[in-house]
Fold this protein.
Amino acid sequence: MVIQLYRSIKKMKNKTTKIMILVLSTALFGCAQNAKEKELQTFINNHVEKVKPLSKEANLAYWDAAISGKEEDYDKVSELTLEIRQIYSNAKDFAMLKEMKESCDVKDTILARQLDILYNGFLENQIEPELLKEIVELSTDIEKNFSTFRGTIDGEKVTDNEIKEILKTETDSAKREKAWLASKQVGPVVADDLIKLVKLRNKAAQKLGYENFHTLSLTTAEQDVNELDEIFDELYELTNEPFAKLKAELDGILAEDFNVITAQLMPWHYHDPFFQETPLVYDVDLDSYYEDKDVKELAMSFYAGIGLPVDSIIANSDLYEKEGKNPHAFCTDIDRKGDVRILCNLKNNETWMETMLHELGHAVYDKKHNPEMPYLLRQPAHIFTTEAIAMFFGRLSRNPAWMQQMLELTDDQRAEIEKVSDKYAQLKQLIFARWAMVMYSFEKQLYENPDQDLNKLWWQTVEKYQFVKCPPNRNTPDWAAKIHFTIAPVYYHNYLLGELFASQLHNHLVHKILKLKSSKNVSYVDQKKVGDFLIKEVFEPGALYHWNMMIKQATGEPLMPKYFVAEFVN
Ligand SMILES: [Zn+2]
């Protein structure tokens, strides 16, 4: 049905679609609904009446917990989350929604869209209580193992941070090897349980008629495995040669740093346990440009300049470090009615400039949903589309043109930044893209057949995408050391899709909205057209359309990797 709705709209021209939606939305309030539509409308009204106050309460509780760090506040969050989950696990309601979806009697586009969203929300919660309990307990156990396990170097326990520090700074290959091995020691500790968890998740999915948990998860997230395969395959082809070239260059530098020949480079010669981050060899210290500035003021003035003022968001937010407070950053839409907040721990440096721009990107998306739209549609089109907006703005903290204008830098200072910033951005994106391919491809095969030789599969996948060699005779569950397979299953691909959409938006804004010839030197500073475009094409529609429909309407094309490639692969 999701696909049906998407396809039937896809055929129409953009304008017609918008007029149709407009007509249909008046139909929703004015004209007659058929019996099924009336029944659905009543169900939605009742459902929203229950979920709306609970979600608000849960969001507020989470906000309080993140600031106080108190156990009892976190308990309240779990209680409320469970209460909401119970609403979505109601089997009778699900059966009704399923029947309604299959009947195709709901013709009204806006109602049908809400039906899709409800159906997916219920579908992912239709797991028998016994099985669900088993799954939750096992994944909590594994998570606990992760948080309490400490790898050892020469018999001495080391923390993750100590391992990371060694991989960033140590020049002795033997010491690096030990640190890398320590980072993988958690693998054998959790692997058997993780395989058991994968099988339990598969069992739950199969009871609902899906091949495996991977397929079920993608379905409830309105993603199609073939569509994703196509995007990932294309990106693999397009980045293959450029990545090989950059990687060879990088290997040359690393080999010299560690006094080995490139053929001797091993996984521990990269600067993090999975080679998912850019080794520091090209990095440039941008913090000095921010240290005497105020990143909050910079962000506020930038967003105001593009027509997306954030004063009311900032007024509700919590921006600075406090005892007990969550040390990271996030954005939350408390009520889908304008109470949008961000949590940060600001310092005047480049990392926090990026984070501030990133979180405010999420925030303006939430803030600018159309208040006339039904509650269920007042949310981003997809988790990765809001991530894309956040990334799109976050990228500016290292953009030389943006930095020059916002930080009032001289041409010399800007030239200094430009020397390394392009190269760094390119490396960062390529390394991350190839790593995300490993995660996507491996996880898909993990759920397809958890009984295969996973250790071998992992290294085959790493060698194929990252060109990193498996250490001789290694047969250990190194894949299980990645916590995401446990705590955030079938999610990783969204990070990469976010990057792709951010680049596609960038290309569209530069060429079609600002009508510039090149994306070089584009800072977006004071370009009100940027805000106008995003409000109209991305923020206001919310979840009214399937994500790919929204992207197609906004940029003229469905999501595709070519703009990411054009931006970061020469
Ligand atoms: Zn984010």
